[in-house]
Automatic annotation (TrEMBL):
Name of this protein: NADP oxidoreductase
Keyword presence, Cell inner membrane: no
InterPro entries linked to this entry: NAD(P)-bd_dom_sf (IPR036291), P5C_Rdtase_cat_N (IPR028939), STEAP_metalloreductase (IPR051267)
Lineage: superkingdom: Bacteria
Domain Pyrroline-5-carboxylate reductase catalytic N-terminal: 7-95
Upper classification of the organism: Bacteria, Pseudomonadati, Pseudomonadota, Alphaproteobacteria, Rhodobacterales
Keyword check for Cytoplasm: no
Pfam families membership: F420_oxidored
Keywords recorded for this protein, A-Z: Oxidoreductase
One GO molecular-function entry: oxidoreductase activity
Membrane-crossing segments per the record: none
Signal sequence coordinates: none
Amino acid sequence: MTEPKMIGILGAGRVGTAIARRALAAGYEVRIASSRPASEMALVLQFVAPGAVAASAAEVMADSDIVILALPLSKYRSLDPAALRGKIVVDAMNYWAQTDGTLPEFEGVPTSSAVIADHLAGARLLRAFNHLGYHEMDGEARPAGDPERRAMAIAGDDAGARAVLARVIDRLGFDPVDAGPLDAARGFAIGTPVFGAPLGREELQAALGVPLAA
């Protein structure tokens, strides 16, 4: 695909709006949908992500080059697989039983993204954004070459989609680290040493077993 121009975000909580701010700062067009009507969301976005455009979920899925899932995990079954077929879709959600409640389908699976991938069969599903806190999206972004720049992992079975997202993450202010197939997302899941850790590129590559030359 050509370089993405429009980033769509499903979910307007702290993670979704933090990604929106970074994407806007990097020069992308941003569309956001939430459970609220778009007219109500537009007022909220004026304060939390000025420049982002409120839209319906259907519009976000249809019009965006990349769709980021930042909604409560329990809502994943509301996503229409047909609407996301062939799209680059980024799962930024985490399973927190304490807040999501116990969701049986996510208990004991290697990664929550495996469940999302089964539901969204046909989408070019990736895993990213989940191991950094929303406050770090804003506060830790740095220009390329900055020695304090943080790294962000990407996993997914579509190498082309990983490459596209890597360029987006670089523009957002983080060093992308290609962890490989979707199953590799278990290396930066909740409870791993990587989750929430302030790691640079080489540190994250070492933690995930990615060759330093990659």
